[in-house]
Amino acid sequence: MDAFRTRCSRRRVRLRTASVARRDPPYVLLVAAFAILASVAAHAQGPTYQLGRVPSQEEIKARDTAISPEGKELPPGRGTAKEGATVYTQKCAACHGPNATGSALHRGLVPLGNAKPVKIPWSLVPYATTVWDFINRAMPQTRPGSLTPDEVYALTAYVLYRNDVITDTDVLDATSLPKIRMPNRDNFLPAQPEWNPKAKRPFGYYP
Amino acid sequence: MGSHSHSRRRWFLTSGIGVAGLVMGAVRSLRGQTAAPTAPPRDTLAYGQPSPFDNTIRKAPGQGTAITDTALMTPLQDLDGIITPSGLHFLMDHVKGIPDLDPKKHRLLLHGMVDRPLEFTLDELKRLPSVSRVYFLECNANSRPLHGPNGESVQLVHGRTSCSEWTGVLLSVLLKECGVKSGASWIVAEGDESNKYTMSIPLGKAMEDTLVAYAQNGEPVRPHQGYPLRLVVPGWEAIRAVKWLTRINVVDRPYMAWHESGNNADTRPDGKGLWYRFELGPKSVITRPSGGQRLPGHGFYEITGLAWTGRGAVRRVDVSTDGGRTYKEAELQQPVLRYAHTRFRYAWKWNGEETVLQSRCTDERGEVQPTILEAAKNLGVTPDYFYEADHFNGIQPWKVNPDGRIQNALF
């Protein structure tokens, strides 16, 4: 209700600004200042329903672990494919097989960057951050989220190395990981996702 | 039935296993989620069951493997009206194992580019202004042309769509409560299960009509549908409708998470991947008579089916009883709801000769459902492209043989 009232008063202010402006220019500044104050007051106002709890920054940080393509959310840490091979044997091979080619129960991790026009799992991963993010949040299946950042960097390096994207000595960290060019990066339409609800689509084409 | 479950319950209560089950139920699983409490089975009066003569059930397309997602299709040929019973709602589980989420412990966190991050319990969400809306959900892989036994019924070809009355809080209410900062343009929604299923949705759609639903057809959302909380994104491919919803991050870019980047892109013959497709095209299918059924003889039949579109309301459905040479307008069940299944009906007298039945949907924007040949021509592909493609919305022809048998006549 308070928010509604503030919105109404702001609208009145705007109307007055318009009518005053025509008659007496000096008033404009004063009224404009009032309008700004009113909008600041609206901005600073609390929520309408006063429900929900404000979580602490630490709580948010603990749960805010998803990574975007630019990788600005990546934590400190590092790893290489060589180190990743060791972690893989300990924590991944049981499901994904000794050579990462999968088993009857789990997907293989190779191939990953297949440029052939065949739809297969992992063949169209456009960003290395996506691989890091999935390993970090969802693996291993029995204890998702239990890997250290170093382990995730190393495992990502191992998967990318096994798919011929990087060498086994390349060091992955928060700076180098987002810079990796995945083989299929340029093969997506549209290049950047967009939503245009008003667009008229040609007949028979509903992508 | 009744006495059977009664005796089973007595056995359960007296055997002591029930106590062990309750103790185990309190132990937290490795995934950090609480195992579902072991409750005595409900008898048929405590929770009503269909007649023993009725066997309307979901079915899987072929033999599932441990790697493939759990998939069960809605028996569209056996249903009437526009609401899918919750127990018959299709499911495509892109996760390993359904999480047992305790509604008392479940939280929804909204954070990111907001003035006030907020965390809601389920009870708090239920105190907020609610809406109930009838929306369909459809898997982006629905209606792929199928050969062999899987192609012979409307259930296995088109059964990855269902329609429910969803109740919950509009996401816009929650986002306004948090105060979205200028510059924000996307939300990233995360589910609370082992795969951490994550999807990016443009802020415009999140603010327009996206629903945070806790009820489906009047009762709590079923576990396979995201109990206790899920997103419903009206008209959009259902992979966006995150189940077991636990977190919404307000951001300024899509996150390209695993399930939304490569895994759900179509590869065209030129090697380009089509991704981030949101709204489904106009679609309709005759559900009766349909593939696998048999007409007992010539005479009167009501042709009926469902139509829907990702861009609002169905404006009209036309039915052809001569393989697409001529179409006549079908009757639409009222009210026609936006982003909901729309039931159509058409009176037909079969003369006993071979023919082909098919329907064509036109939506409120004037977009028209294409034939498979028209769809292929527009994409510059051969029709077999659609075996592996998503978002296929071609017209479904059903061939009526002189002996009354109905077959899939797409190819």
Task: Give the beta-strand count of chain A.
Answer: 3
Sequence of strands across the biggest β-sheet of chain B: 4-3-12-7-8
- Return the string of H and E elements of chain A: HHHEHHHHEE
Helix content of chain A: 40-55%
Query: Strand-residue fraction of chain B?
Result: 25-35%
Largest sheet of chain B: 5 strands, mixed
Give a nutshell description of this structure.
The complex is a heterodimer of chains A (207) and B (411). With 207 residues, chain A is an all-alpha fold.
What are the SSEs and their pairings?
The complex is a heterodimer of chains A (207) and B (411).
Chain A: H1 2-23, H2 25-44, H3 57-63, E1 78-79, H4 81-91, H5 93-96, H6 128-138, H7 149-162, E2 172-173, E3 188-189
Antiparallel strand pairs in A: 1-2
Chain B: H1 2-15, H2 17-26, E1 70-72, E2 91-93, E3 107-112, E4 118-121, H3 122-127, E5 131-138, H4 154-158, E6 161-170, H5 171-178, E7 186-191, E8 198-202, H6 203-208, E9 211-216, E10 219-220, E11 230-232, E12 245-251, E13 266-267, E14 273-274, E15 283-288, E16 299-308, E17 314-320, E18 328-329, E19 331-332, E20 342-350, E21 355-363, H7 372-379, E22 398-400, E23 406-408
Parallel strand pairs in B: 3-12
Antiparallel strand pairs in B: 1-2, 3-4, 5-6, 6-9, 7-8, 7-12, 9-10, 9-11, 13-14, 15-16, 16-20, 17-18, 17-21, 19-20, 21-22, 22-23
Notes on the protein architecture:
- The complex is a heterodimer of chains A (207) and B (411).
- Chain A is an all-alpha fold and 207 residues long.
- Helix content of chain A is 43%, strand content 3%.
- In chain A, strands 1-2 form a two-stranded antiparallel ribbon.
- The longest helix of chain A has 22 residues.
- Chain A is globular, with a radius of gyration of 26 Å.
- The two termini of chain A are 42 Å apart.
- The N terminus of chain A is likely disordered.
- In chain B, 14% of the residues lie in helices and 29% in strands.
- In chain B, the strands form 6 sheets. In chain B, strands 4-3-12-7-8 form a 5-stranded mixed sheet.
- In chain B, strand 9 and strand 10 form a beta hairpin.
- The N terminus of chain B is likely disordered.
